[in-house]
Amino acid sequence: MNRYLPLALIFASVVPVLAQAPPARANLWIDVSAAGRNDAAVTDLRPEEFEVWMSGYRIPVTDVVAVTPESGVSRTVVIVLDNAAVPLTLVPRVREAARLLVDKLGPGDRMAVTTLHGGVLELTDDRAKLRAAIDKYSVQGFPFRIDDAGEHVLRTMTALSRALAEVSDRRKAIVAIGAGWMFDTPLPPPGIRDLGPQWVGAMREMGSVHATLYVIDPAGIGVAPGQFFGGSSGFAHETGGHAFMNSNDFRAAADRIWQESSSYYMLGVVNPPIRKTADLREVEVKVLREGVTVRSRKAIRGK
To answer: Are residues 136 and 242 in the same domain?
Structure first.
């Protein structure tokens, strides 16, 4: 089954909702992934093991919905291929990383393969069509000024999130495969250019639809240390995702992305009267169980 519209438009779709419907008393939901030893998913956390902090205040957790592979919830993954900043020599590696993600498409899952510039969004469960889109991928060089790259990334994430708004209330993964310096560090150094409004717009839209960003840099091992933030900081981390930098293990990256798309928590809290008129509100989720770490987006929309 396919759905096809230009990237900047919202498409209508009917898809399954969470296997366990969120209780009505929570009117604010935060998606969280939890991992233990060797990044294995932890799926048995209890409500009292979570803490949610907003702008320095602890917010009571009213509900916890654990989503696991056994929940029967399908997954939505959008692959964004960098056709602007990737050198020709890395095109085969971009295709390899994308194909590994397609190989793990399961029953009921939907995926789209698009490009950073000039792409369209077509969700499908047809592996052959997805692989054909990957085979057609090529680079065209910068279709914009290099100092506009960050703004283009942020606007693309905003448009993708709006297009995914009606997919369902579950977590969605956007996987950007390409130049890590562009995808994971779209904000230029202070004093060069202010992309604050574009950053806020992207974070607001991604948070509203529970869209998490993952970045896979095809350059692999050998990237100069300090060239990227990646991993524990950067744009992907701010959305609750991860940036895979300086690694040739694309299979491990694909495994982790799919795992976190099928094993996560939806934490329900009553929307507190804290900075409700702000464009973004800082959020921190903590876990009390020893040996377990959690990742969630660092900011959600206020007004």
So the answer is: yes
